[in-house]
Automatic annotation (TrEMBL):
Upper lineage: Eukaryota, Fungi, Dikarya, Ascomycota, Saccharomycotina
Annotated keywords: Pyridoxal phosphate
Keyword Transmembrane attached: no
Species of provenance: Zygotorulaspora mrakii
Family that this chain belongs to: Belongs to the pyridoxal phosphate-binding protein YggS/PROSC family.
Matching NCBIfam families: YggS family pyridoxal phosphate-dependent enzyme (TIGR00044)
Residues of the Alanine racemase N-terminal domain: 42-267
Keyword check for Transmembrane: no
Domain of life: Eukaryota
Biological role stated in the UniProt entry: Pyridoxal 5'-phosphate (PLP)-binding protein, which may be involved in intracellular homeostatic regulation of pyridoxal 5'-phosphate (PLP), the active form of vitamin B6.
Protein name, UniProt field: Pyridoxal phosphate homeostasis protein
Cofactor(s) needed for function: pyridoxal 5'-phosphate
GO MF terms held by the record: pyridoxal phosphate binding
SUPFAM superfamilies: PLP-binding barrel
Post-translational modification N6-(pyridoxal phosphate)lysine, affected residues: K67
C-alpha cells in the first residue's frame, strides 16, 4: 500500500510519539492513525478558516506560525492551499524546508543571530526574514543570499521595532539606527534582500488589556508614517499574534502571525519534533 506524504508524515509522528510516551504496543494501529489524522485535519482547517475570516475584508496576510509543530500539520494546511508559514528556530526551519513542498513561502520570525544569517539565506524558498534589527545582520543576509542563492528571489525583510521599549525584547528603538538600516536597504548594491516593512511584538500587558487602542501598534504605525514620508516608501506592518491580532487588524496591520490560534498550544522545545 502506498501512502501520501501527509499519511507518511503522520505515521512517522505517531511512531515517534509512541516511543516518546512509551505507548504500549501497536494494536488498533491503523484505526487510531486514521482517526487521529482525520480529526486533526478538521481541527486545523476550521481554526485556519475562522482566523482567515478576520483577515479577509481587510486584506491582511495570515501567517501560520508553525514553530514546534510537526511537518504533518503544515502539510495538512498546505493541501488546503496555505503557503505562508512562520518558523522561529533555524535548524527546525531547515529540516522542514527540506521535507515539505518547495513552493511554501517560509517566514523566519525568531530572534536573528548574525552567524545564522548564512544558513537562512541558503534556504531557497525563504520568503521573508521578519526580525532584522541591525545593519550588520542585513549585510550578512544580503551577502550570503548573493553567494548561495543569487538566482532565487531576494529575501523580503522586516525591520523589527521594539515598540514597547521593554528591555528583554529585541528590536530597534533608536531613530538613528532605524534610519541607517532603512538606508542600507535602499543602497543600489543591496540587491539580494529587499525592505518589506516593519514588525513588532506587542507587549503582554498591552495585548491583554481589552477594548483599548494598543499603544505598541500605534507606535509602529507612527514609525511607518515617518519612514514612508522620509524615504518615499509604503512599508507593510507585521503586527498581531494570538492575543492581539483582532486589535492589530483594526489598527492597520498588513500581516498577522498566528500560532496558537491555528495549531493550539505548543509543546516545549524538548518535546517538539519535526
Ligand atoms: C511564536 C510567535 C508568534 C505566534 O504566537 P501565538 O501567540 O501563538 O499566535 C508570532 N510572532 C512571533 C515573532 C512569534 O515568536
Amino acid at each position: 500500500m502506498s501512502l501520501l506524504v501527509t499519511e507518511r508524515l503522520e505515521v512517522v509522528n505517531i511512531l515517534r510519539k509512541s516511543i516518546n510516551t512509551s505507548y504500549k504496543g501497536l494494536r488498533g494501529w491503523n484505526v487510531s492513525k486514521a482517526i487521529c489524522s482525520m480529526s486533526r485535519k478538521q481541527e486545523l482547517i476550521k481554526n485556519y478558516e475562522d482566523a482567515v475570516k478576520e483577515c479577509k475584508n481587510n486584506n491582511v496576510l495570515l501567517l501560520a506560525v508553525s514553530k514546534l509543530k510537526p511537518a504533518s500539520d503544515i502539510k495538512i494546511l498546505y493541501d488546503h492551499g496555505v503557503r505562508h508559514f512562520g518558523e522561529n528556530y533555524v535548524q527546525e526551519l531547515i529540516e522542514k524546508s527540506q521535507l515539505l513542498p518547495r513552493d511554501i513561502q517560509w517566514h523566519f520570525t525568531g530572534g536573528l543571530q548574525t552567524n545564522k544569517c548564512k544558513d537562512l539565506a541558503k534556504i531557497p524558498n525563504i520568503a521573508m526574514v521578519e526580525t532584522i534589527d541591525s545593519v550588520k545582520k542585513a549585510k550578512k543576509l544580503n551577502e550570503a543570499r548573493r553567494t548561495y542563492n543569487a538566482d532565487e528571489p531576494p529575501i523580503a525583510c522586516n525591520i523589527q521595532i521594539n515598540a514597547s521599549n521593554e528591555e528583554q525584547k529585541s528590536g530597534l528603538t533608536d531613530a538613528e539606527e532605524i534610519f541607517a538600516l532603512v538606508e542600507f536597504f535602499l543602497k543600489p548594491d543591496t540587491k539580494n534582500i529587499v525592505l518589506n516593512g516593519l514588525m513588532t511584538i506587542g507587549s503582554w500587558d498591552v495585548s491583554h488589556s481589552a477594548g483599548t487602542e494598543n499603544q505598541d501598534f500605534t507606535k509602529l504605525v507612527e514609525w511607518k508614517e515617518l519612514l514612508d514620508e522620509k524615504y518615499g516608501l509604503d512599508l507593510k506592518l507585521s503586527m498581531g499574534m494570538t492575543a492581539d491580532y483582532k486589535q492589530a487588524i483594526k489598527q492597520g496591520s498588513s500581516e498577522v502571525r498566528l500560532g496558537t490560534t491555528i495549531f493550539g498550544n505548543r509543546p516545549s522545545r524538548a518535546d517538539a519534533f519535526v
